[in-house]
Predict the structure.
Amino acid sequence: MDVIMNEKRPPPPPAPDPVETSDLDFIRWDEARMTTGVASIDEQHMELICHLNELHRAHLAGLQPDDIKKILKFLGRYAESHFRHEEGIMEERLCPQRKENRLAHAKFLFAYQELVSNFSIEEDPDQIAEEIKNMAARWLVGHICRVDAGLRDCPRIAPKENGNPQPPTSSL
Ligand SMILES: [Fe+2]
């Protein structure tokens, strides 16, 4: 019997690295509920979780307001760039959640930036840091599980050839 050896399949994308966790973590990556099936987005969500945990640890350690502010600004910039990336992918895949996702991102950034501005002028930075941390963590977990995870059902759309639409391919 002939064995076909030359049928090549593309290698699977690398699995995201597991998120480092410790007892001081505020939130944790939950593979079953949070994975979107898009490696770049899952990796960025894990990064966001890491940065939120960093903020939490800095807050617990009583870091100076200026240092907390640096983390807050970085977190805001990272979230903004991640949102752009994710919105592009949802648009490409014609994901039904894409409009809801864009709106949710814009609302989050507005609320986040307002809280960060208050952090600079607030008399009690400790309390506002607590508020920002809780708001961002609650929003992120709920949003990933409820909106972003919708990407699992949106396969990648193959590019058109000769003007003929191609059927969707697997998302991986
Ligand atoms: Fe999102």
